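Action item from last meeting closed. Structure (324 res):
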């Protein structure tokens, strides 16, 4: 096995709070192990276009508390082609880069798997996505910050809902996963949580709203954007059933991606950044570093990218019990 002397790190897919902490950990762990470290700007697109810069300890100073990603991120149609991947490989060959660390989600790891298969380059992944929908880790980088952002926003909205006796339908991110909606729904006391993994029982929701109208001055419905019908349709259906209710729709949108990462996300990203570099030096490749039951574990890319489509039934049961 060829000794690793030069590594590079990139962020790909949607940005997530804590990515900068992960970049910082990779760079400083690499330097600690006498490696030369490079940063690839704009993800796989930058890899294809040769946007690769050397990094040192100073280049990642004062970034651990910042949201987003200092290396930027972008989608790359070119990297999806063999010609694009060949150009990317030639770019890292010119700089003598021996291995990569990629921070992102399933699309990032799918691209990494193809790159390994074709060009035999060692790659380790770090789970950076606010959706928390990757297998092989209890939590992904950015998830904790995202749900705390939702909770903060919903708490503020409830103040207005209480003041005006309103029903608020709040749409949160989660096109393929309802984990943001589910956990934030429990922590904000939502009357109902609608997620893409489960069929919507509108009759049950309407009965719940009707039952609560005498003893509650506000009602909150959390809807994941990936739900079959979305927040707007849900709000319209409530208006049809309860024309006397003052129903409002609030779409939180991209505020959930931004902001200072929480302590949990900073520590998680730091631990996984260190583990990723050490994993490469131990000869690992084609695996994602994750945290399971408090311990770092590595999961092959092909298993990590299988979305978690089975929701913890205990969480949905808690929503129903506590919505009385």
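Sequence:
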């Amino acid at each position: 096995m060829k000794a690793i002397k030069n590594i590079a790190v990139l962020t790909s897919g949607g940005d997530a709070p804590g990515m900068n902490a992960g970049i910082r950990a990779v760079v400083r762990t690499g330097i600690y192990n006498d490696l030369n470290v490079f940063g690839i700007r704009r993800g796989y697109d930058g890899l294809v276009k040769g946007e690769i810069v050397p990094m040192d300890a100073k280049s990642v100073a004062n970034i651990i508390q910042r949201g987003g990603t200092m290396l930027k991120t972008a989608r790359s149609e070119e990297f999806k082609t063999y010609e694009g991947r060949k150009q990317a490989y030639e770019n890292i060959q010119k700089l003598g880069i021996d291995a990569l660390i990629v921070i992102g989600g399933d699309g990032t790891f799918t691209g990494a798997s193809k790159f390994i298969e074709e060009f035999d380059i060692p790659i380790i992944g770090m789970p950076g996505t606010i959706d928390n929908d990757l297998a092989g880790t209890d939590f992904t980088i950015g998830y904790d910050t995202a749900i705390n952002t939702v909770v903060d926003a919903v708490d503020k909205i409830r103040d207005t809902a209480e003041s005006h006796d309103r029903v608020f339908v709040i749409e949160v991110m989660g096109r393929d996963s309802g984990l943001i909606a589910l956990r934030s729904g429990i922590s904000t006391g939502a009357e109902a949580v609608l997620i893409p993994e489960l069929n919507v029982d509108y009759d049950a929701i309407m009965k719940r709203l009707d039952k609560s109208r005498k003893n509650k001055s506000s009602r909150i419905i959390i809807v994941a954007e990936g739900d079959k019908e979305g927040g707007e349709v849900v709000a319209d259906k409530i208006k049809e059933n309860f024309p006397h209710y003052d129903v409002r729709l609030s779409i939180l949108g991209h505020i959930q991606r931004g902001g200072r990462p929480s302590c949990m996300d900073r520590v998680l990203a730091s631990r996984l950044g260190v583990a990723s570099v050490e994993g490469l030096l131990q000869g690992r490749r084609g695996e994602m570093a994750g945290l399971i039951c408090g311990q770092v574990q590595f999961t092959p890319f092909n298993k990590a990218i299988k979305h978690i489509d089975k929701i913890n039934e205990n969480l949905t049961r808690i929503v129903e019990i506590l919505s009385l």
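Note appended to the action item: The two ends are 61 Å apart (CA to CA).
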